[in-house]
Amino acid sequence: MKITKTWSEDECIASIDVFLKKFDAGTLKMEDTPLFFSALFGAIYKSRAEKDDEEKQELWENIADDIEELGTMAYFVVMREKPQFKYIWKVVAEDFKMMEYEGEYEGLTDVKSNIWMDWIDDVQKDLFNGNPNMSAAFFAGDVKVKGSTKMGAKPRDWVYDFFAYLDREPKA
């Protein structure tokens, strides 16, 4: 496995406005998967830095609670129908980042838990629209998880919090 890109905090924060324009216009495509994930991380970074708005702090606080409860985590996310889209979400309070990788999955050694997930394009489209409930897709085989399914479900909450942070309602 080779890490081919690490998004900077500034890149992630800058992607929020680009994502919002596409979300509001309804023009998100599968090629926007990196944009969606980087905007999610941008909102997390901004939430972590928020000092005055308790609602905006909630996204980071919920992730920090997950880290406290479950320990450090790395999520390996693969788009089944677009295998070139391979991402790592490193969830460590002091080293929180989004990366892209190529090659075969190898867990990170500096986190407590590694969770590998893949899903089909329709699941990603649901995420784009603010619907991270993957339960039916999981039971249909459209989402696969290697590792703790409890931990595999955590990003669902983060996506709900992401759309709340953006002050956007999910689209049907």
What is the CATH-assigned architecture? Answer: 2-Layer Sandwich
What percent of residues are in strands?
A: 15-25%
CATH topology: the name is: Nonspecific Lipid-transfer Protein, Chain A
Q: Give a short account of the largest sheet.
A: 6 strands, mixed
**Largest beta sheet: strand ordering:** 1-4-3-2-5-6
Descriptive overview:
There is one protein chain. This protein has 172 residues and is an alpha+beta fold. The protein has one domain (2-165): Nonspecific Lipid-transfer Protein, Chain A (2-Layer Sandwich). Helices cover 48% and strands 23% of the residues. The chain is built from six helices and six strands. The chain has helices spanning 9-25, 33-49, 54-70, 121-128, 135-140, 149-165, and strands at 2-6, 73-79, 82-91, 97-102, 113-119, 143-146. It has a six-stranded mixed sheet. A hairpin with a 5-residue loop joins β3 (82-91) and β4 (97-102). α2 packs across α3 (54-70). The longest helix is centred in the N-terminal third of the chain and has 17 residues, at 9-25. It is globular. The N and C termini lie far apart (37 Å).
